[in-house]
Amino acid sequence: MIKVSQVHKIYPSSKKGEDVHAVNDVSFECKPGRVFALLGPNGSGKTTMLRMISTMMQPTRGSLAVAGLDTSKDTEKIRKTLGFLTGSAGLHEKLSAAESLEFFGQLHGIRGDELRKRKEFLIERFELGEFLNRATGKLSMGQKQRVMLARTLIHDPQVVIFDEATTGLDVLAAKGLIEIIRDCRQEGKTVLFSTHIMGEVAMLADDVSILHEGRQIYSGTMDELKSQQQSVSLEDEFIKLLESATEKSGGNS
Amino acid sequence: MIVVWATFRKEISEVLRDKRTLLLTILVPMVFYPALIMLAGGLGAKQQMKEQERKIYVGINSEEVSQEFVTMVMDQQGKDESIVWKLLEKETSVKESLQTGAYDIIIDTEHVKNGEDKPYYELTMHFFSTAKGETDLARVEAIFANLKAEMIESNMGKIIDISEYKDYASVRESTGSKFGGMAAYFIVFLAFTGCMAVAVDVAAGEKERGTLEAMLVTPASFWEITFGKLIFVVVMGLLSVGSTALGIGSMVLAMGSAVEGMSLGGVGWVSILGILLLILVTVFFFAVLLFTMSILARSSKEAHMRCSLLMLLIAMALVYCTLPGVASTGTILFIPVLNVALSLRALWEGSMTLLDYTTVVGSLVILCALIIYYVDRKVSNDAESMLLK
Known about the structure:
Helix content of chain A: 25-40%
Strand order of the largest sheet of chain A: 6-7-8-3-9-10
Number of helices of chain B: 12
Oligomer: heterodimer
Largest sheet of chain B: 5 strands, mixed
Shape of chain B: elongated
Helix content of chain B: 55-70%
Structural class of chain A: alpha/beta
Radius of gyration of chain B: 28 Å
Number of helices of chain A: 9
Number of domains of chain A: 2
Order of helices and strands of chain A: EEEHEEHEHHHEHEHEEHH
Radius of gyration of chain A: 19 Å
Order of helices and strands of chain B: HHEHEHEEHEHHHHHHH
Strand content of chain A: 15-25%
Strand order of the largest sheet of chain B: 2-1-3-4-5
Shape of chain A: globular
Largest interface: A-B, 23 and 17 residues
């Protein structure tokens, strides 16, 4: 479970000028066995929000809790329960898939038989066998994505975060990732994913929060969003919400 | 042609908007390199002048020396006050006088009658064949060469001849002072380049590729990951030094006597251990410094540029260390790179004191601790801008 309460993230301006409010008074809850979609255009504060949840950054104000633990105090414990995959993440290209899983397992403190069994499970689950010992730098995008997913789940985390993880993937690879997200929900994990693709949200999300220029302009269940829908498609509804928020905030973005 | 021109214009536009690249590729070379060359040239010239003006003491063995010779030599004192001529007291040990530094050169004279009743002096030069000792010897030889020329000109004929040289330096002192500076240059420079080759990649490279973020989101702490990386950089730095030492060592063995006088003869195991420990500490210092510079850079390109500038600075500092008369004393003991290069030479020639050695190693360890403390503060206060893309 993830609980975000009135979180602000302010970056001090590098030049003389106003500070940048990357995240401005955002609150939401992600529950186990449900998929939460964090939606917003580029630069809306999604990545900053997810990095704060994953303990990589600290909020300027407000509080964040993962599995009941405070992200500012229980960093190590939270990281043990958390899997985080970003679209910009890379692989150690000289290592093979097997070595990569081994290394990340060790970083998570998994050893011996436990690590071996977990590796075997993930190799089968993500069908890594055919290229297991090949350097990951020589793999296709789809194969790399499967290795990264296996790496993210090596410690069987209860909370999984995907930050625009389908970016740059072809249709088949993106579909594979969507299936993994569904599986995670079925296993009772808490899943939080960010995207700017409405189609993915419609397919996967149980709950939705929309960010725009750091502010939360919508928060609710997917069913509620659909019931309030006035436009023809969800895509149009998303754009309408963004335009309305832009008008309210002064209209020059 | 339009495409070529358009592409060229695009590249120019991009680079003109990249202030850091502009600064590092145009402004820094324009200002920094000439300043560095001027500084190095100035320091070199100053050091050479200092060497020429350094006071040296020349002892004349007073047994059987003629008053005429003494008067002739003492007259030189007025021409060059930096060379002090003194008559050696009776029963003074030549070796001891040279070893204690009471005299830099000692001259024995033998008055040879050549049948025509003209005075004729055969000289024996007692000296230390270290780099400093040979400089001193050259200065004294120049005096005698002048004297001889004057005598020939005034039709007095050849009256002075240096017939024998007696060297009191051990093989260790001699080779250490002659080759120690160059060896230190290679060791320190290779340690730096060996570390640099990998430090940029494991810090800035991993940050750029997004693999560092993936590692940092695990329960492993920043310092656990960093120390793992630092150990790797140290090993690579040591390998770089070791493989070159092995290569040069094999070459020297293969060439045998071709590299005359180059020998480690007489360097005891304590000094060898001291050299190895100093190399280890130096490589660790470079690893910490380069890792910090790389992790603070925004990209691999920026990290490479910063480290290359530092490499140039280090190369200049190492050249300065090879100049005669530059020794590991005083404040130099606290200046990184200079202190290491000079200490390595001093350890080889056997002139390093335990106190100086401890000062050099201690100051490097303290510097490493300060850099690590700075990085720790920076990570605590601003981890996101430092570690994330």
